[in-house]
Structure prediction request, 119 residues.
Amino acid sequence: QVQLAESGGGLVQAGGSLRLSCAASGRTLSIYSMGWFRQTPGKEREFVGRIFWNTGLTSYAESVKGRFTISRDNAKNTAFLQMNSVADEDTAVYYCAAKKVPGVNWDYWGQGTQVTVSS
Prediction:
């Protein structure tokens, strides 16, 4: 089992920056990739981006490309989501997730952290 814990959410002004962290514990050697998702009330959870744990390769949703950056610290088993130039539409609960093997399903989820952008 892998446990994930997000932190770093809060209130940020439009145009500002915020960095979220996702600390993994448990069987972290089984992590293949980690992803970030977000969700607002009444909407489906939206993919934000992901990072492959061994290679560090990343991919992003078009809505955040060029503004958000995902990185990881393997020694600390922590992934980061650097959010720059945030806008109102970035307000959401942000979740991190982990995957053990390639595929569609994400195996583990964190509890989420609220990000609110004020204009």
Remarks:
- The chain has a mean pLDDT of 96.
- Residues 1 and 27 are 6 Å apart (CA to CA).
- DSSP finds no helices and eleven strands in the chain.
- The two ends are 40 Å apart (CA to CA).
